Amino acid sequence: MPLFLLILTNLLGLLTFPIVISYRLESHPGIGSYLMLYAVTTFLKLVSFHHVYHDVRYLVKQVIAAKRQQKVLEPSMTEGTIFGVSKSVFDVAVTYPKCLTVGNFLRFMIAPTCCYQLTFPLIDHVRPQRLLKHFVEFMLAHSLMCYFFIQHVAP
What we know:
The protein is mainly α and 155 residues long. The chain has 5 helices and 2 strands; from the N terminus they run H-H-E-E-H-H-H.
């Protein structure tokens, strides 16, 4: 319970900090909106991360209880899952807390997704053309945002 209150306090602080700072500093609404967008995105990512590891802890408790009862843990014939989890995710989840690493957390926080997974589909190598394409798209989108903000939003 104290851990839950600490998590809740952290998440609420994350959402209220940009509002308080924008109000106190009387910042421009565009900057306040950007800070709030960043805070909400980080909030959603942290909630997703917390939910996944809450489910992982529950799965580990189920596995421990099943092993105490000496049950055989094999994928079901109809779904191919163990406790409703695919075999690949199950194999990673039962290594908890070793599957909880700073590297996984940082990769998730940098990744352009709000839904954390224990196993992300990855490719073996970096494709330079695709990386360049995404960088150019990012720069164009950022330039357009700056143009619209300077020309049409700022007084």
